[in-house]
Amino acid sequence: MALQALNNVGFEVISAEDLAINDDKISWYYPLEGEVGKAQCIWDYFTVFRMTHFGKFFTRNLVNIRNNLMLILFYIYIDILKNIYIIFFFTFR
To answer: Which of 5, 8, 20, 50 has its CA 20 to 30 A from that of 43?
Structure first.
């Protein structure tokens, strides 16, 4: 049904395979499970790590730290621009 819909709108399907039918020991969606034991190569460890509880905790906190740091730097930048404007305004008045 999906293949027919793709063909109807003008796409050319070169290859199609239903991965749910395969009887593999490791499923195609193993990176989403968050089980490090199913990693097959070095890069998979980074991919699977993101979906573990610790990986989600680490990523969430790292993003929060980055956002807070950017807010602090933004307010410092605005304060510096304000001081430059005041010095410039009163010097050349």
So the answer is: 20
Rounded to 5, what percent of the chain is helix, strand, coil?
A: 65, 0, 35
Q: Looking at the whole model, is its pTM more than 0.90?
A: no
Running DSSP on this structure, what letter comes out for residue 20?
Answer: T
38 neighbors 30 (Cβ within 8 angstroms):
yes
For residue 26, which of 14, 15, 35, 17 has the smallest C-alpha distance? 35
- Name the CA radius of gyration of the chain, rounded: 26
Q: Read off the amino acid at residue 88.
A: F
Instruction: Give me the residue spans of the domains in the chain.
Output: 1-51, 53-93
| Alpha-carbon span 86 to 60, nearest angstrom | 39
